[in-house]
Amino acid sequence: MMRLTLALLTITGLAHGAPATQVAWTPETQELVKSGDPGRGEKLAATCAGCHGERGVSANSAFPSLAGQLPTYLYRQLHDYKDGSRVNPLMQNFTSALSDQDMADLAAWYSRQPPPENSKAADPSQFEDILRLVRQGDSKRIIPPCRVCHGKQGQGEQIDTPRIAGQSATYLEQTLKAYHDGERHNDIYGRMRLIAEQLTSEEIRQLARYYATLQP
Ligand code: HEC
Ligand code: HEC
Q: N or C: which end of the chain has fewer CB within 10 A?
């Protein structure tokens, strides 16, 4: 019995308590990201263009756009892929040879590119149900409103809450599902996992569609 309890504690501990990322926002790390060289980043980004687009706007909806994203967020994701805190074989492969400086340079370049442009504005009446989660959250399920962290327009917030406005719906849905299932677990304090695990598949689909149509 005791052993079973211990085993269960270890499993839940791994799901929620495991170190999410190895990047801590020390003054040194923030300085490193700030000092990123966009010119060098542009050269390094040649390897990435096939999937993420020439200037970080991806043409394939399975590949996230990177243009206009927060540099601190980009830096941390690259670091997380490299050390395995965020698991993706493709991205682990493309980050394995990058130094911390390379990642800061790439982050500097992508963050300065114009974000994806939406051709048509969202029709709010289409999203009435899901807007409640976005604006008010759901206190019964202890889900805070998305916009307290991601910003009123989904534009993201310092230090590393990503911009989600204008991101591809396919990618947003896929990554929210990954938090929901615990496959993506590099979020500090499990903030996104605790939220996503309570969302239904339909809510995830609608939230992804809503944010994809917002103009960043
Ligand atoms: C063969 C295609 C491919 C190439 C080449 C590639 N990526 Fe990716 N990238 C992906 C996919 C697929 C994902 C989403 C993976 C996931 O779900 O975690 C991704 C995710 C990312 C993310 C996370 C974005 C977010 O919003 O969280 C960053 C940052 C990133 N890539 C940067 C790069 C950089 C920099 C390079 C070049 C050094 C690169 N990628 C090369 C396919 C690629
Ligand atoms: C408590 C603050 C907070 C709230 C509330 C919150 N988020 Fe997040 N979200 C974050 C942080 C921080 C990250 C980055 C986590 C990481 O590094 O994996 C994130 C990441 C994400 C990502 C991944 C983006 C990418 O490029 O991969 C999506 C999608 C997302 N959130 C959607 C939502 C939605 C939809 C809601 C509302 C239901 C929401 N978030 C509520 C803080 C929050």
A: N
| Shared-domain flag, residues 83 and 141 | no
CA of 91 to the centre of ligand 2 (A): 20
Ligand 2, atom 14, residue with closest C-alpha = 161
Query: Is 96 in a helix, a strand, or coil?
Result: coil
Ligand 2 atom closest to residue 145's alpha carbon, by position in its atom list: 5
Last residue in a domain, options 111, 146, 167:
111
Output the pLDDT for position 18: 53
Task: Kindly state whether residue 119 falls inside one of the protein's structural domains.
Answer: no
Output the pLDDT for position 19.
59
Q: How far is the CA of 64 from the centre of ligand 1 (A)?
A: 7
Residue 86 near residue 114, CB atoms below 8 Å: no
Binning the chain into helix, strand and coil, the percentages to the nearest 5 are 55, 0, 40
Token pair listed for 9 = 């504690």
Q: Which of 111, 133, 157 is a domain's end point?
A: 111
Rounded Cα distance between 57 and 35, Å, is: 23
| Cβ–Cβ < 8 Å for 204, 173 | yes
Determine the Cα–Cα distance for residues 214 and 149; give it in Å rounded to an integer. Answer: 16
Residues of the chain predicted below pLDDT 50:
1-2, 4-15
